[in-house]
Amino acid sequence: QVQLVESGGGLVQAGGSLRLSCTARGLVVINNMAWYRQGPGKQRELVAVMTGGGANTNYVDSVKGRFTISRGNAKNTMYLQMNSLKPEDTAVYYCNSPTGLYSWGQGTQVTVSS
Predict the structure, then answer these.
(1) What value, to the nearest 5°, has the Cα angle with vertex 19 and ends 99 and 83?
(2) What angle do CA 73, 46, 99 make, to 5 degrees?
(3) What is residue 101's predicted lDDT score, i.e. its pLDDT?
(4) Are 113 and 44 contacting, i.e. CB atoms less than 8 angstroms apart?
(5) What is the pLDDT of residue 67?
(6) Which of 35, 16, 13 shows the shortest CA–CA distance to 24?
(7) Residue of 51, 47, 50, 87 whose CA lies nearest to 67
(8) What is the C-alpha separation between 95 and 108, in angstroms, rounded?
(9) Are 98 and 47 in contact (CB under 8 A)?
(10) Partners of 7 in the β-ladder
């Protein structure tokens, strides 16, 4: 059974940066994984996808050039480096497979103040 654990969120001013971490307990290697977010009153949306262990990445238009998804040195970990944060990035961030294959973790709250 795979348990997803997200961490690294917090309160940051607009323009600031955060790095989120995802650990997939029960997996030896993360090859295809994604970050999602759910803002207040919004549906969960796919933000960034990593395939081939990070060889290929894709991002939703609203975060392109600001967010970077990558796999950690521990191959069952993944990161989301978020720069130039905006208030509209405020959300709970989750990791999961690109198809939402695993049970959802608790997520990590990111709050960006203006």
Answers:
(1) 100
(2) 80
(3) 94
(4) no
(5) 98
(6) 35
(7) 47
(8) 10
(9) no
(10) 21
104 token code pair: 């959802």
DSSP string, 31-95: -SEEEEEE-TTS--EEEEEEEGGGTEEEE-GGGTTTEEEEE-SSTTEEEEEE-S--GGG-EEEEE
Residue 36 sits at φ, ψ, to 5 deg, of -125, 165
The amino acid at residue 62 is: S
Contact assessment for residue 44 and residue 96, using Cβ atoms and an 8 Å cutoff:
no
Q: What is the mean pLDDT of residues 5-21?
A: 98
Amino acid at 36: Y
Q: What is the pLDDT of residues 19-45, one digit of tens each?
A: 999 999 998 888 999 999 999 999 999
Tokens of 41: 């009153």
Residue 97 tokens read as 């497979």
CA separation, residue 52 to residues 32, 49, 60 (Å): 6, 10, 18
- Name residue, tokens 């905006």: 86
**Rounded to whole angstroms, what are the CA distances from 34 to 14, 16, 113?**
24, 22, 25
